[in-house]
Amino acid sequence: MRLKALKTMKPEFPRVNFAIRSILNFYEIQYIEDYLDFWSGKREWWKEYGQNWFKYALKSFERMDDEIYQTIHTTNHNTQVELFELLKDWLTDYRIEQVAEKAILRQLDIENQNRLKRHEEEVEKKTEEYFQSEDRKHAHLEEYTNEVNSLLQLWWHPQYKYNPWWNSPEKEKKINYNFYCIKEEPDLISDEPLSQYFELVSYLIEKFKETLRPHMEKYNAGKIACNNYVTIQALYVEQPALPPAPFGEAKATNEQIIWQKNDTDLLEMITALTEIKSLQNKTGNLTRADAIKSFENFFGIEIKDAESKLVRATERKKSRAPFINSMKTAFEQYCENKNEK
User: Fold this and answer.
1) Dist. CA 41–CA 175, nearest whole Å
2) How far apart are CA 334 and CA 142, in angstroms?
């Protein structure tokens, strides 16, 4: 029973974890959206909030420093090793090793796609309501008279003028248009201040490393704890202090393959491969959804509303397979270049 209890024990470092989370927060869409909108001039009132988030992050590094000193001087060897091995892992995380610009761009792209979709749905709804109105029964450019028949309608339609001496509304002449003009533009997040946002995140990462540098140098030199202490793995169950990278992203390496085209191009290729039975799983029942999920995991991305995007791709008039056509052209060009050599 005593051994079982030891296996479930694990030291926690709340201030260290909070400092790490303070950096990772800047990869969340809420932070990206708020800072970019503020720098784009959309929300001047938000300035104090942005300054506070930045100050809280810097303050969390100071508190982390205090916790590291406390751990060094008041805990045993096992706890010290656990702390510094945790820090070593996080220092090589792709979001802390350097500014993960592509991760931020991906969050921005996903949010703007969602906003564009919501805008299109709202436009479609308003258009439908417009053409279902009784006023559309008139011919295009036909003049007609509109009036409000009751005081209740006057309350809900204050734009109609009426005689103050008499509670009946005035008639208003209108012209019917059998088309709906869209004036509103989608409220997308501007990417113009991105360089400023990258500099902000880079500054925080450097301050985080600067706080840890003297402690890590001592630890790596063996002046705090022995690096080859291995029995700690038997004493503690490995549980990540913070959630893993989104979409199964690994640390940035030279071998990591990145999809540089858009989601529709990838869906076009996956669909073609599944339709000609080029892809299959061990059980022989691979579906298109399974194939899409596998490609998402492989490239470390997430395709939102895959089926909707695929439907829109099939409705293209000029060319239904522009990406596959471009691949065919590229390979033919490669063959020609090969023959010329």
Assistant:
1) 38
2) 61
The distance from CA 256 to its chain's CA centroid, rounded to whole angstroms, is 20
Q: How far apart are CA 337 and CA 254, in angstroms?
A: 28
Give the closest residue to 83 by CA, choosing from 150, 166, 15. 15
- Tell me the per-residue pLDDT of 205-231, one tens digit each, with 9 for 90 and over: 999 999 999 999 998 888 875 444 433
Take residue 191 and report the two structure tokens written for it. Answer: 């990417």
For tokens 């091995």, name the residue: 85
C-alpha separations of 96 from 81, 228, 231, 305 in Å: 21, 25, 28, 30
Residue 311 CB-density burial (10 A; 0-12 exposed, 13-18 middle, 19+ buried):
exposed
**β-bridge pairing 143-146 and 172-175:** antiparallel
Query: How far lies 193's CA from each of 38, 156, 198, 239, 256, in Å?
Result: 9, 42, 9, 37, 28
pLDDT digit string, tens, across residues 233-272: 433 334 444 454 444 444 444 456 888 888 888 888 988 8
**How far apart, in Å, are the Cα atoms of 118 and each of 49, 84, 302?**
27, 46, 19
Render the burial of 235-253: b for 16+ CB within 10 Å, e for the rest. Answer: ebeeeebeeebbeebeebe
Phi, psi dihedral angles at 175 (to 5 degrees): -120, 130
- For 64, counting Cβ atoms within 10 Å of its Cβ (0-12 exposed, 13-18 middle, 19+ buried), the class is buried
